Amino acid sequence: MAKILVTGAAGFIGSHTVDCLLGEGHAVVGVDNFRTGRRENLASALRSAAFALHELDVAEPGALAKLIAAEKPAAIIHLAALVSVQESIANPALNFSLNIAASQLVAEAARLHGVGRVVFASSAAIYGDAAERPIRESAEKLPVSPYGAAKLASEALLLGHGAAYGFTVRCQRYFNVFGPRQDPSSPYSGVISIFARSYREGKSVVIFGDGRQTRDFIAVRDVARANVLAATRPGVTSGVANICTGRATSLLDLAALFASHPPGSPPPTHRPARTGDIVHSLGDPTAATAALGFTAQVTVAEGLHELINGPAIPALS
Ligand code: UD1
Q1: CATH of the domain at 119
Q2: Which atom of ligand 1 is found nearest the CA of 189?
Q3: How many independent structural domains does the chain possess?
Q4: Residue 125: count of CB within 10 angstroms of its CB
Q5: What is the domain extent for residue 101?
Q6: Residue 278 counted as domain residue
Q7: pTM, whole model, 2 decimals?
Q8: Which residue has its alpha carbon closest to ligand 1 atom 36?
Q9: If pLDDT is split at 50, 70 and 90, which confidence band does 317 have?
Q10: What is the C-alpha to C-alpha distance for residues 176 and 186, in angstroms, rounded to an integer?
Protein backbone atom coordinates (compact mmCIF):
# COMPACT_ATOMS: atom_id res chain seq x y z
CA MET A 1 0.00 0.00 0.00
CA ALA A 2 1.29 3.45 -0.93
CA LYS A 3 0.24 7.02 -0.21
CA ILE A 4 -0.75 8.78 -3.45
CA LEU A 5 -1.59 12.47 -3.87
CA VAL A 6 -4.19 13.26 -6.55
CA THR A 7 -4.69 16.82 -7.81
CA GLY A 8 -8.07 17.55 -9.34
CA ALA A 9 -9.44 14.82 -7.08
CA ALA A 10 -13.05 16.10 -7.26
CA GLY A 11 -13.11 16.19 -11.05
CA PHE A 12 -14.45 13.66 -13.53
CA ILE A 13 -11.27 11.61 -14.04
CA GLY A 14 -9.87 12.55 -10.62
CA SER A 15 -12.75 11.18 -8.58
CA HIS A 16 -12.73 7.87 -10.46
CA THR A 17 -8.96 7.65 -9.95
CA VAL A 18 -9.40 8.26 -6.21
CA ASP A 19 -12.08 5.53 -6.03
CA CYS A 20 -9.82 3.09 -7.89
CA LEU A 21 -6.82 3.83 -5.61
CA LEU A 22 -8.93 3.37 -2.47
CA GLY A 23 -10.38 0.15 -3.92
CA GLU A 24 -6.85 -1.19 -4.23
CA GLY A 25 -6.03 -0.34 -0.61
CA HIS A 26 -3.91 2.78 -1.11
CA ALA A 27 -4.04 5.88 1.08
CA VAL A 28 -5.11 8.93 -0.91
CA VAL A 29 -4.54 12.64 -0.36
CA GLY A 30 -6.97 14.50 -2.63
CA VAL A 31 -6.51 18.11 -3.68
CA ASP A 32 -9.05 20.31 -5.46
CA ASN A 33 -9.94 24.00 -5.63
CA PHE A 34 -13.54 23.18 -6.65
CA ARG A 35 -13.38 25.50 -9.66
CA THR A 36 -14.90 22.76 -11.78
CA GLY A 37 -14.58 19.78 -9.42
CA ARG A 38 -17.61 18.79 -7.34
CA ARG A 39 -17.62 17.50 -3.78
CA GLU A 40 -20.44 15.06 -4.57
CA ASN A 41 -18.11 13.21 -6.96
CA LEU A 42 -16.19 12.17 -3.83
CA ALA A 43 -19.22 11.04 -1.84
CA SER A 44 -18.00 7.47 -1.58
CA ALA A 45 -14.31 8.37 -1.08
CA LEU A 46 -15.17 10.74 1.78
CA ARG A 47 -16.56 7.79 3.73
CA SER A 48 -13.12 6.12 3.68
CA ALA A 49 -10.64 6.61 6.53
CA ALA A 50 -7.86 6.21 3.94
CA PHE A 51 -8.92 9.42 2.14
CA ALA A 52 -8.09 13.01 3.10
CA LEU A 53 -9.33 15.98 1.06
CA HIS A 54 -7.58 19.37 0.93
CA GLU A 55 -9.09 22.43 -0.71
CA LEU A 56 -6.24 24.27 -2.40
CA ASP A 57 -5.23 25.74 -5.73
CA VAL A 58 -2.25 23.96 -7.33
CA ALA A 59 -1.50 27.10 -9.36
CA GLU A 60 -0.88 29.11 -6.18
CA PRO A 61 2.91 29.06 -5.62
CA GLY A 62 3.87 27.20 -2.45
CA ALA A 63 0.45 25.76 -1.64
CA LEU A 64 0.94 22.26 -3.07
CA ALA A 65 4.63 22.10 -2.06
CA LYS A 66 3.66 22.70 1.57
CA LEU A 67 1.15 19.86 1.52
CA ILE A 68 3.61 17.53 -0.23
CA ALA A 69 6.30 18.34 2.35
CA ALA A 70 3.87 17.38 5.12
CA GLU A 71 2.33 14.29 3.48
CA LYS A 72 5.36 12.86 1.66
CA PRO A 73 3.37 10.88 -0.93
CA ALA A 74 5.09 8.15 -2.95
CA ALA A 75 3.52 9.52 -6.13
CA ILE A 76 1.52 12.47 -7.45
CA ILE A 77 -1.23 12.00 -10.03
CA HIS A 78 -1.59 15.49 -11.46
CA LEU A 79 -5.04 15.85 -13.01
CA ALA A 80 -5.98 19.40 -11.91
CA ALA A 81 -6.37 21.48 -15.07
CA LEU A 82 -8.42 23.80 -17.17
CA VAL A 83 -10.17 20.99 -19.01
CA SER A 84 -12.09 22.74 -21.75
CA VAL A 85 -10.42 23.33 -25.11
CA GLN A 86 -12.93 26.12 -25.79
CA GLU A 87 -12.13 27.82 -22.47
CA SER A 88 -8.40 27.68 -23.28
CA ILE A 89 -9.14 29.57 -26.50
CA ALA A 90 -11.30 32.13 -24.67
CA ASN A 91 -8.84 32.55 -21.78
CA PRO A 92 -5.28 31.62 -22.82
CA ALA A 93 -3.72 33.29 -19.75
CA LEU A 94 -5.74 31.11 -17.40
CA ASN A 95 -4.79 28.12 -19.55
CA PHE A 96 -1.12 29.08 -19.10
CA SER A 97 -1.49 29.34 -15.34
CA LEU A 98 -3.46 26.12 -14.79
CA ASN A 99 -2.05 23.93 -17.56
CA ILE A 100 1.63 25.00 -17.70
CA ALA A 101 2.69 27.02 -14.64
CA ALA A 102 0.98 24.56 -12.28
CA SER A 103 2.90 21.68 -13.90
CA GLN A 104 6.17 23.48 -13.11
CA LEU A 105 5.04 23.80 -9.48
CA VAL A 106 4.27 20.07 -9.38
CA ALA A 107 7.70 19.25 -10.87
CA GLU A 108 9.41 21.53 -8.35
CA ALA A 109 7.50 20.08 -5.41
CA ALA A 110 8.37 16.54 -6.53
CA ARG A 111 12.05 17.47 -6.75
CA LEU A 112 12.20 19.26 -3.39
CA HIS A 113 10.33 16.63 -1.42
CA GLY A 114 11.61 13.40 -2.93
CA VAL A 115 8.41 12.23 -4.64
CA GLY A 116 9.29 9.11 -6.67
CA ARG A 117 6.72 9.37 -9.44
CA VAL A 118 4.54 11.92 -11.20
CA VAL A 119 1.65 10.86 -13.44
CA PHE A 120 0.42 13.63 -15.71
CA ALA A 121 -2.95 14.03 -17.46
CA SER A 122 -1.94 14.73 -21.05
CA SER A 123 -4.25 14.60 -24.04
CA ALA A 124 -4.64 13.49 -27.65
CA ALA A 125 -5.06 17.26 -28.25
CA ILE A 126 -1.24 17.50 -28.42
CA TYR A 127 -1.38 15.77 -31.84
CA GLY A 128 -3.70 18.38 -33.40
CA ASP A 129 -5.15 17.10 -36.65
CA ALA A 130 -2.61 14.28 -37.07
CA ALA A 131 -3.04 12.47 -40.37
CA GLU A 132 -1.73 9.20 -38.94
CA ARG A 133 -4.31 6.54 -38.07
CA PRO A 134 -4.00 4.99 -35.58
CA ILE A 135 -1.93 7.71 -33.94
CA ARG A 136 1.28 6.46 -32.37
CA GLU A 137 3.17 8.45 -29.74
CA SER A 138 5.83 9.32 -32.33
CA ALA A 139 3.27 11.13 -34.56
CA GLU A 140 3.95 14.76 -35.36
CA LYS A 141 2.67 17.05 -32.61
CA LEU A 142 1.10 20.21 -33.96
CA PRO A 143 -1.49 21.28 -31.37
CA VAL A 144 -4.27 23.52 -32.67
CA SER A 145 -5.35 25.06 -29.34
CA PRO A 146 -3.74 26.69 -26.29
CA TYR A 147 -4.96 23.63 -24.39
CA GLY A 148 -3.09 21.14 -26.61
CA ALA A 149 0.01 23.36 -26.58
CA ALA A 150 -0.02 23.54 -22.78
CA LYS A 151 -0.36 19.78 -22.40
CA LEU A 152 2.60 19.26 -24.74
CA ALA A 153 4.71 21.87 -22.92
CA SER A 154 3.87 20.30 -19.56
CA GLU A 155 4.92 16.87 -20.76
CA ALA A 156 8.31 18.29 -21.69
CA LEU A 157 8.66 20.20 -18.40
CA LEU A 158 7.84 17.19 -16.27
CA LEU A 159 9.93 14.69 -18.27
CA GLY A 160 12.93 17.04 -18.21
CA HIS A 161 12.68 17.54 -14.47
CA GLY A 162 12.20 13.84 -13.85
CA ALA A 163 15.31 12.99 -15.87
CA ALA A 164 17.43 15.67 -14.20
CA TYR A 165 16.34 15.04 -10.62
CA GLY A 166 15.71 11.32 -10.66
CA PHE A 167 11.96 10.82 -10.44
CA THR A 168 9.73 8.85 -12.80
CA VAL A 169 7.26 10.73 -15.00
CA ARG A 170 4.39 9.11 -16.90
CA CYS A 171 2.47 11.26 -19.39
CA GLN A 172 -0.96 9.80 -20.10
CA ARG A 173 -2.36 10.96 -23.43
CA TYR A 174 -6.09 10.45 -22.94
CA PHE A 175 -8.33 10.10 -25.98
CA ASN A 176 -12.12 10.71 -25.69
CA VAL A 177 -12.95 9.77 -22.10
CA PHE A 178 -16.58 9.15 -21.14
CA GLY A 179 -18.56 7.89 -18.16
CA PRO A 180 -20.45 8.82 -15.00
CA ARG A 181 -19.81 12.30 -13.46
CA GLN A 182 -18.83 13.91 -16.78
CA ASP A 183 -20.34 17.37 -16.99
CA PRO A 184 -22.74 17.70 -19.97
CA SER A 185 -23.52 21.39 -19.45
CA SER A 186 -21.58 22.98 -22.31
CA PRO A 187 -22.29 22.38 -26.02
CA TYR A 188 -18.59 21.47 -26.17
CA SER A 189 -18.79 18.87 -23.40
CA GLY A 190 -17.96 15.30 -24.39
CA VAL A 191 -20.52 14.05 -26.88
CA ILE A 192 -21.45 10.98 -24.82
CA SER A 193 -22.31 13.10 -21.77
CA ILE A 194 -24.51 15.29 -23.99
CA PHE A 195 -26.18 12.28 -25.63
CA ALA A 196 -26.80 10.68 -22.21
CA ARG A 197 -28.57 13.80 -20.99
CA SER A 198 -30.69 14.09 -24.14
CA TYR A 199 -31.56 10.42 -23.79
CA ARG A 200 -32.59 10.85 -20.13
CA GLU A 201 -34.75 13.84 -21.07
CA GLY A 202 -36.34 11.91 -23.97
CA LYS A 203 -34.96 14.43 -26.48
CA SER A 204 -33.49 13.76 -29.88
CA VAL A 205 -29.67 13.76 -29.97
CA VAL A 206 -28.03 16.21 -32.38
CA ILE A 207 -25.40 14.85 -34.76
CA PHE A 208 -23.13 17.44 -36.35
CA GLY A 209 -22.36 16.37 -39.93
CA ASP A 210 -23.17 12.96 -41.41
CA GLY A 211 -22.33 11.06 -38.24
CA ARG A 212 -19.59 9.03 -39.91
CA GLN A 213 -16.85 10.82 -37.95
CA THR A 214 -15.16 8.48 -35.48
CA ARG A 215 -13.49 8.77 -32.08
CA ASP A 216 -11.58 6.44 -29.78
CA PHE A 217 -13.93 6.53 -26.77
CA ILE A 218 -12.45 5.15 -23.55
CA ALA A 219 -14.41 4.53 -20.35
CA VAL A 220 -13.34 6.59 -17.34
CA ARG A 221 -13.12 3.37 -15.30
CA ASP A 222 -10.34 2.19 -17.64
CA VAL A 223 -8.61 5.58 -17.52
CA ALA A 224 -8.63 5.48 -13.70
CA ARG A 225 -7.04 2.04 -13.79
CA ALA A 226 -4.36 3.29 -16.20
CA ASN A 227 -3.60 6.13 -13.76
CA VAL A 228 -3.32 3.75 -10.82
CA LEU A 229 -1.00 1.45 -12.78
CA ALA A 230 1.19 4.39 -13.81
CA ALA A 231 1.44 5.56 -10.19
CA THR A 232 1.88 2.27 -8.39
CA ARG A 233 3.07 -0.54 -10.66
CA PRO A 234 6.60 -1.64 -9.72
CA GLY A 235 9.36 -1.09 -12.27
CA VAL A 236 7.59 1.55 -14.36
CA THR A 237 10.00 3.96 -16.07
CA SER A 238 9.49 7.46 -17.47
CA GLY A 239 7.69 7.91 -20.76
CA VAL A 240 4.55 8.83 -22.68
CA ALA A 241 1.64 6.64 -23.73
CA ASN A 242 -1.72 6.99 -25.42
CA ILE A 243 -4.55 5.98 -23.11
CA CYS A 244 -7.07 4.72 -25.61
CA THR A 245 -8.76 1.56 -26.82
CA GLY A 246 -7.55 1.34 -30.43
CA ARG A 247 -11.20 0.97 -31.53
CA ALA A 248 -13.10 3.54 -33.59
CA THR A 249 -16.78 4.31 -32.93
CA SER A 250 -18.80 6.57 -35.22
CA LEU A 251 -21.44 9.04 -34.05
CA LEU A 252 -24.04 6.96 -35.92
CA ASP A 253 -22.90 3.88 -33.94
CA LEU A 254 -23.25 5.88 -30.71
CA ALA A 255 -26.75 7.09 -31.55
CA ALA A 256 -27.76 3.50 -32.40
CA LEU A 257 -26.40 2.23 -29.07
CA PHE A 258 -28.42 4.83 -27.17
CA ALA A 259 -31.52 4.03 -29.20
CA SER A 260 -31.16 0.33 -28.38
CA HIS A 261 -31.79 1.04 -24.69
CA PRO A 262 -35.49 0.85 -23.80
CA PRO A 263 -37.76 2.78 -23.81
CA GLY A 264 -35.99 4.04 -26.90
CA SER A 265 -35.45 7.62 -27.97
CA PRO A 266 -36.49 9.82 -30.88
CA PRO A 267 -34.30 9.51 -33.98
CA PRO A 268 -31.22 11.73 -34.14
CA THR A 269 -31.40 15.19 -35.68
CA HIS A 270 -28.63 16.18 -38.12
CA ARG A 271 -27.07 19.64 -38.17
CA PRO A 272 -24.18 20.92 -40.32
CA ALA A 273 -20.70 19.74 -39.29
CA ARG A 274 -18.90 21.99 -36.79
CA THR A 275 -16.11 24.12 -38.17
CA GLY A 276 -12.75 22.73 -37.13
CA ASP A 277 -14.23 19.34 -36.28
CA ILE A 278 -11.79 16.55 -37.06
CA VAL A 279 -13.17 13.54 -38.95
CA HIS A 280 -11.30 10.62 -37.42
CA SER A 281 -9.30 10.23 -34.23
CA LEU A 282 -7.97 6.82 -33.25
CA GLY A 283 -5.11 5.98 -30.93
CA ASP A 284 -2.61 3.12 -30.97
CA PRO A 285 -2.80 1.60 -27.47
CA THR A 286 0.27 -0.65 -27.61
CA ALA A 287 2.73 1.61 -25.77
CA ALA A 288 0.52 1.69 -22.64
CA THR A 289 0.35 -2.10 -22.69
CA ALA A 290 4.14 -2.38 -22.93
CA ALA A 291 4.94 0.29 -20.32
CA LEU A 292 2.11 -0.16 -17.81
CA GLY A 293 0.53 -3.54 -18.56
CA PHE A 294 -2.63 -1.57 -19.36
CA THR A 295 -5.30 -2.62 -21.85
CA ALA A 296 -8.75 -1.03 -21.95
CA GLN A 297 -11.41 -3.54 -20.94
CA VAL A 298 -14.73 -1.69 -21.11
CA THR A 299 -16.40 -1.56 -24.54
CA VAL A 300 -18.39 1.51 -25.57
CA ALA A 301 -21.58 -0.60 -25.37
CA GLU A 302 -20.76 -1.68 -21.80
CA GLY A 303 -19.74 1.81 -20.76
CA LEU A 304 -22.98 3.30 -22.14
CA HIS A 305 -25.00 0.63 -20.40
CA GLU A 306 -23.37 1.57 -17.08
CA LEU A 307 -23.88 5.25 -17.75
CA ILE A 308 -27.57 4.75 -18.42
CA ASN A 309 -28.40 2.05 -15.88
CA GLY A 310 -25.72 2.43 -13.20
CA PRO A 311 -22.84 0.06 -12.42
CA ALA A 312 -24.90 -2.32 -10.26
CA ILE A 313 -26.50 -3.89 -13.34
CA PRO A 314 -24.26 -6.39 -15.18
CA ALA A 315 -22.73 -5.00 -18.36
CA LEU A 316 -24.03 -5.98 -21.78
CA SER A 317 -22.00 -8.73 -23.37
C1 UD1 B 1 -12.39 17.47 -28.54
C2 UD1 B 1 -12.79 18.51 -27.52
C3 UD1 B 1 -13.16 19.79 -28.20
C4 UD1 B 1 -12.02 20.25 -29.11
C5 UD1 B 1 -11.62 19.12 -30.07
C6 UD1 B 1 -10.35 19.49 -30.82
C7 UD1 B 1 -13.79 17.48 -25.57
C8 UD1 B 1 -15.05 17.10 -24.88
N9 UD1 B 1 -13.94 18.07 -26.78
O10 UD1 B 1 -13.48 17.30 -29.38
O11 UD1 B 1 -13.42 20.78 -27.23
O12 UD1 B 1 -12.39 21.38 -29.84
O13 UD1 B 1 -11.32 17.93 -29.33
O14 UD1 B 1 -10.01 18.49 -31.70
O15 UD1 B 1 -12.70 17.30 -25.08
N16 UD1 B 1 -20.95 16.00 -31.58
C17 UD1 B 1 -22.23 15.79 -32.05
N18 UD1 B 1 -23.28 16.18 -31.25
C19 UD1 B 1 -23.10 16.77 -30.02
C20 UD1 B 1 -21.77 16.98 -29.57
C21 UD1 B 1 -20.72 16.58 -30.38
O22 UD1 B 1 -22.45 15.29 -33.16
O23 UD1 B 1 -24.10 17.08 -29.36
C24 UD1 B 1 -19.84 15.54 -32.44
C25 UD1 B 1 -18.73 16.53 -32.65
O26 UD1 B 1 -19.04 17.40 -33.69
C27 UD1 B 1 -17.57 15.60 -32.94
C28 UD1 B 1 -17.87 14.35 -32.09
O29 UD1 B 1 -19.23 14.44 -31.76
O30 UD1 B 1 -17.53 15.23 -34.28
C31 UD1 B 1 -17.07 14.27 -30.82
O32 UD1 B 1 -17.18 15.51 -30.15
P33 UD1 B 1 -16.48 15.79 -28.71
O34 UD1 B 1 -17.01 14.85 -27.72
O35 UD1 B 1 -16.59 17.26 -28.45
O36 UD1 B 1 -14.97 15.36 -28.96
P37 UD1 B 1 -13.89 15.93 -30.00
O38 UD1 B 1 -14.50 16.28 -31.31
O39 UD1 B 1 -12.81 14.92 -30.03
Answers
A1: 3.40.50.720
A2: 8
A3: 1
A4: 23
A5: 3-178+218-246+283-297
A6: no
A7: 0.95
A8: 190
A9: very low
A10: 16
- Closest atom of ligand 1 to CA, residue 85: 11
pLDDT score at 261 = 74
Residue of 176, 177, 281, 304 with the most ligand 1 atoms within 8 Å of its CB, for mutation: 176
| Domain assignment present for 191 | no
User: What is the rounded distance in angstroms from the CA atom of residue 23 to the CA atom of residue 21?
Assistant: 5
Is it the case that residue 315 has pLDDT exceeding 50?
no
| pLDDT at position 130 | 82
**Minimum-distance ligand 1 atom for the alpha carbon of 208:** 22
| Ligand 1 contact via 274 beta carbon (within 6 Å) | yes
Q: Which residues contact 185 (CB under 8 A, 6 or more apart)?
A: none
Mean pLDDT over 278-303 rounds to: 97
Residue nearest to atom 13 of ligand 1 (CA): 125
Tell me whether residue 241 is in a domain: yes
Parallel/antiparallel/unpaired status of strands 27-32 and 3-7:
parallel
Q: Is the CB of 191 under 6 A from ligand 1?
A: yes
Residues serving a catalytic function are 147
For residue 171, give the H/E element and its range. Answer: strand 168-174
Q: Is residue 130 part of a domain?
A: yes
